Model the fold of this input.
Amino acid sequence: MLNQSTGLPRLTKTKGIILASLIAGAMPLPRGPKTRFLSIMSQIRFSIYFAATVLAATTLHADTIVTYPPGTILENIAIAPAGDLFVTDLGSGTLFRISPGGSSQVFGRVPGPLAGVALNTDGTVVAASGTSLYRFARDGTPTLVTDIAGAGFLNGMTLFSPGTFLVADHAADLIWRVDLRTGRASPWLTGSLLVPPAEGLPIGPNGIKLFGGAAYISITGAGTILRVPILPDGAAGPPEVYAYLQVDDFAFGSDGSIFAANQQGEIIRLYPNGVRTSLPTGTLGDAAVAFGRTAADRNDIYIVNNGGAFLGLPGGPGPASVVRLPTDTTGVVPESQVHRDSKGGEEDEEDNRETHGHSGRD
Done:
């Protein structure tokens, strides 16, 4: 695939076709020693490994901001208005605070895994851990907000209105709405469109973001991105398939483009008109994307990766890292997309606690 982003090197057409074919496991290698090598390992695993080699040889790597030892599973990212990155480590339950210059420190830690992370309108960091949601004080001390009865595994999350978040549950196949002030959680969206097929990856709702009065949700196992209109009272409208694309988490550019991580060495840019381009990262295990928020990096995306921890690479995963790539657009500020009621004001959580969820159907 050709890289059409301004300021980034382009793959030749031939190399791009080879790379795409190798990632898909669709192109056999010529007969000879490499063919015999494939006979002792999975062609898919080799394809991913070789694709990474092609990327390294044909593209300028993204700028590496910070690196962590192999086995670190960086999962999600949120960026504060002042520019600091908050990055979760799924395996250790650690929340890192990273400066754009690459200075990393442990900001906080919870006893379980740590997945999705987002910021409240007052700057409070909120993160998902298993079936629980935590808020972090300014010194990084975590406080349990709620442990959700009936939850499976909380993954990506996004600010919905001040003090209220939408949280994707990839195991229970639904979207929760959680009020930080009361700790109350209720299903916001359920239905068959959120359920991965039995023969696919067992990952339902993964990433979730708001844009233009709708929620967008990646259903990784189904290979879809859903668009869900938000009704005036804050309830979920009828969901629809916005795109067929198997990705992890994502971010919106101000032009309406989706920048999505797919774990395989590239960020897929999906334009509003359906055109797709590839931004090679030179890394593997890319899991989440966020735009910078300062004058120096508002056109750049930050990508967290796990070094290919889930790809079965020969020799095991590489180091995890946070990398930075330039784009030709600015990012959407999450706080700018909060739901506003039918009168044009921000939703009052206390007045809308009993909003009922929507059941999405095919």
